[in-house]
Amino acid sequence: MALKSFRDIVHELKMKRDKKLPNLKTPVKGPKGTSRFSRFKSASKSTTSSASLGTKNALSAGTEYPTEESVDEATWPDEMPNEDVDVDEALNMQQRMKRSRLMKRMKTRIAIGRKRASRKMANKKTLEKRSMRQARNELAKKLTRGIPKSELTFARKKEIEKRLEKPALQQRIKRLAKRKFKDVRKKEVQRKKG
């Protein structure tokens, strides 16, 4: 197989004009003809579909690409924070601020996703997640004696999150969620009926 020349490689790329220097063109990420949305969509679907065009050649040359098992789906998009996050412990002040900035940056993307999801009927997994969240919030409200979460200090929130992570409370949350599931499903069916 013959190597591609620099000119051929440049012609394959989609180019965009630089804002400050209009005569200069810089390459846009991804192959020619793909929009930013479709690149993100394909990247978030799976690692195999988002691999570059020369994947087979690269694999034969000995380059290793991550497999679907080795990539954690929750942290796959580039924007998701993968450092500073401990699953066992509650978020500290810095992590909260970082998460806050991330959510502000992604708010339009989240809004689009929410709008799309509202057109469909939620599946069992989503409904279970909703009932778990409701049960968790209900228990948190009992622990704070009715004070809304938005009015609590960071330290108090952290303390409550730690208490909610205890195994005894986790079982209680699961029991509550199981009880709430039918109500959540009923509410979803009602919403879809209009």
Characteristics:
elongated; 57% helix; mainly alpha
Protein described:
With 194 residues, the chain is mostly helical. The chain contains nine helices and two strands. Strands 1-2 form a two-stranded antiparallel sheet. The chain is elongated. 4% of the residues are buried. The model is unreliable at 46-66, 68-76 and 80-86 (pLDDT under 50).
Query: What is the helix fraction of residues, given as a range?
Result: 55-70%
- Which radius of gyration do the C-alpha atoms yield? 23 Å
Span of the ends, CA to CA: 60 Å
Numbering strands along the chain, what is their spatial order in the largest sheet?
1-2
SSE run: HEEHHHHHHHH
Number of helices: 9
Determine the oligomeric state from the structure: single chain
What general form does the structure show? Answer: elongated
- Major beta-sheet overview: 2 strands, antiparallel
Mean pLDDT: 76
Structure summarized in a few sentences:
The chain has 194 residues and is mainly alpha-helical. It is 57% helix and 6% strand.
Outline the fold blueprint.
Elements: H1 6-12, E1 13-17, E2 25-31, H2 36-45, H3 47-50, H4 55-60, H5 93-105, H6 107-119, H7 124-143, H8 154-164, H9 167-193
Antiparallel strand pairs: 1-2
